[in-house]
TrEMBL record:
This is 4-aminobutyrate--2-oxoglutarate transaminase. Belongs to the class-III pyridoxal-phosphate-dependent aminotransferase family. Gene3D superfamilies: Aspartate Aminotransferase, domain 1 (3.90.1150.10), Type I PLP-dependent aspartate aminotransferase-like (Major domain) (3.40.640.10). It is an enzyme of class 2 (transferase). PANTHER family: AMINOTRANSFERASE CLASS III, LEUCINE_METHIONINE RACEMASE. It comes from Comamonas resistens. It comes from the Bacteria.
Amino acid sequence: MNHPVPEFVQAAAKGSNATLMARRQNALPRGVSQSHSVFISHAHNSEIWDVEGRRHIDFAGGIAVLNTGHSHPEITAAVQRQIENFSHTCFQVVAYESYVELAEKLNAMAPGSAVKKTMLLSTGAEAVENAVKIARAHTRRPGIIAFGGSFHGRTNLTMGLTGKVAPYKLGFGPFPGEIYHALYPNALHGVSVEAALDSVRALFKYDIEPERVAAFILEPVQGEGGFYPAPAEFVAGLKAIADAHGILLIADEVQTGAGRTGTWYASEQWPVVPDLITTAKSLAGGYPLAAVTGRADIMDAPAPGGLGGTYAGSPVAVAAALAVLKVFEQEQLLERARKVGERLRVGLRDMAARHPAIVDVRGPGAMVAFELGQGGDVKRPDADAAKRIVAEAAARGLILLSCGTYGNVIRILVPLTVPMAVLDEGLALLADSVAAALA
């Protein structure tokens, strides 16, 4: 039986953003949101062209996935070579050397002098779940303590770890037990380091004894939570509590890792060494790959067969990741991250001097953000202003993302490979957008 083709499908043959958006709304559930109503045709480095031929400067980087830019030729060539040989075996069935090589490199790059081991996965949420599994297997304890404002993923376990209800937890409970949340230090909003550490100690009095806690999990810089860096004294204090009670420290570097903050791992900048590190996002330059790296004795705790996954450590993504490491070395991207970040901070501070509604500019390396408060009051988060800025920027051809517990933070995750001329062009568009939105 022939069914008539809906009008929106016929119209979509023209390839406009509007017609594709109509098809999308009919085909996808509303829970899969979309920040910008454009559809990509092609991209290069830090620039995107949509299906209507319009150019956009990308200050979002696929949410921190494109530190090496869109379609880097070195990464594309490595992927093409791999596909010509084989695309999949499942590493647990038939292994391949590239997986071992990447694990060796990640082990060598991880902070601390202890011997390390690495396992590969597909997504950041997978990496976080496996880090929790490994921590529980090693300590033989169930409890995990995360922090308010954190984001660790959208699976059931990682939603439980995430310290933000809307939109990530709405309607999805119940969540796994033995997960607790302490305060995250935030001097801007009146949460001192000591208050945050005291909230951890309070959990030991009111919710779970420390002898049943397997691990603390902490983002070196909260991503979705608003780009707040964890103060060095807080990390040191947390590690002291952890060591006193045999608790592990997991650094969730899904967003901060792969050079975003000016070092390969953000936790390299910590005064202490984490026991386990999760990475994903920019690890493979746009291909799905994640990793858990940690002390060998901890990583070896799960029994054979307890770790893995059908697509975990895809040979195609592994080839991309090895190329990413090569690009970082050849193009000195860690140093460039620091230069890009400094250029961003200078530009944003200039905007803040002209617009009191910008109450803070922050972030290490090229993980930079600014926060908005009504009338310049940090205690009155201005999510509406953030939405207006994102919309004004989109109208001018600049892709931006907001974040934060109250939705009042604009984050910048531009590729580290961005030409400085394009970076300056994007900053100029952002300045115009801010001026228009805050007028």
